[in-house]
Amino acid sequence: MAFSMGATTSTFLFLLSFTFLCFVEGSQNYRDALAKSLLFFQGQRSGRIPPGTLQDISWRTNSGIRDGQQANVDLTGGYYDAGDNVKFNLPMAFTTTMLSWGAIEYGKRLGHELPNTQAAIRWATDYLLKCARATPGKLYVGVGDPNADHKCWERPEDMDTARSVYSVSPSNPGSDVAGETAAALAAASIVFRKVDRNYSKLLLRTAKSVFQFAMQYRGSYSDSLGSAVCPFYCSYSGYTDELLWGATWLFRATNDVFYLNFIRSLGANDNTDIFSWDNKYAGARVLLARRTLVNNDQAFQPFRQQAEDFMCRILPNSPYSSTQYTPGGLMFKLSGSNLQYVTSISFLLTTYSKYMATSKHTFNCGNLLVTSRTLRILAKKQVDYILGDNPMKMSYMVGYGSNYPRRIHHRGSSLPSLTAHPQSLGCEAGFQPFYYTPNPNPNILTGAIVGGPNQNDFFPDERTDYSHSEPATYINAAIVGPLAYFAGTN
């Protein structure tokens, strides 16, 4: 059958629009996932929820309102790290740094979610400022006895375990937690520079002071605090990476050559194929490599090389890859809470891809040519897997899609709210009726990303299986950037 030119064109346009429609309908709703990923942080809040504060996670109310009293200081606020009721500052500060980096890199793409991102950051930085400024010569680094807390299953609102206060000082150093706190405050100072200048200055001034302490009094907080932080958040990688990370963020915030000279003096050349709350080497190198790729400063070439060595260890087709992938295509680093590594590394992939695109830069892993698109495709595959494109067809973000984890390892989510059950639930009262039940959790912790499936892509959705079913702030903080990136490019 013959077609006229007009018919051919209209048919082609119809087919093109139909194909595009199918693609869009089949892809993930990144904008929805982004909004939910930030909503999760409301469910992790500690402290007093100020009247009039938008609190969409309505089953959470005031908790930990006397935190710090044991040391005669105000340490209210901040976040519970995961499904427990303890405030561990090392992962909390990393969470804050990653949320801030996301806001810095992807501010425009965050769109209407930028104010929510800033609110999530400020809830943490208000607390971190208290920890850094309450007592001269001390940095408070945690509240709540983790050993006592982990023997209980009770709502944050009912907490009756010891709210022990932990700190580091010149005689009990903690360069790791201090370096990360300095990074968080410095990164956040950039976020608030245009919206609250005085707050930004306070953050940066405090970051400098905390980092001076980290440099001057070297030592790991794991050695100083022992069972108060180990094995929960031991600094397994040592503290050199946090000194590198803190100095990198202070250099980004100030452009002061003092921090660059310090970075060079560290000689931190450890090879790595991981990025997490514990190990910051890869993140610092990507951030420093920006100076070469975006600012064309050739003095930063060694950091660019280190960043690309890291990418070559991640890419599945690279001859230097040291990264496992599940049959369904998920990056698999460690069996305990694997998605924390997936979200953090995906952040580095999208961010480095963005830097590469600025200068049309490419690099090689052996005979594999790596372009900006190479990294973007891998990051998108990881994000899409988390959101439901996986063998189990399950979204690992609670409340996103129709098939998501219903029995997450999280006290507030698994126990009835104060509205539903006004009577206090003691330390062990929650175990039998709520922890061990096969019933779904009564409260939906919208946006929470759990630890994820095993290396065979299987997820049992069992509350007792914390290594797979527990959400954490640092899992979510790292995915905000990639979600904004893909929401902006969709």
From TrEMBL:
Top-level lineage group: Eukaryota
Annotated active site: H409, D461, E470
Occurrences of domain Glycoside hydrolase family (ranges): 30-482
EC annotation from Swiss-Prot or TrEMBL: 3.2.1.4
Catalytic activity entry: Endohydrolysis of (1->4)-beta-D-glucosidic linkages in cellulose, lichenin and cereal beta-D-glucans
Pfam families: Glyco_hydro_9
GO molecular function: cellulase activity
GO biological process: cellulose catabolic process
Protein family (similarity comment): Belongs to the glycosyl hydrolase 9 (cellulase E) family.
Name of protein: Endoglucanase
UniProt organism field: Buddleja alternifolia
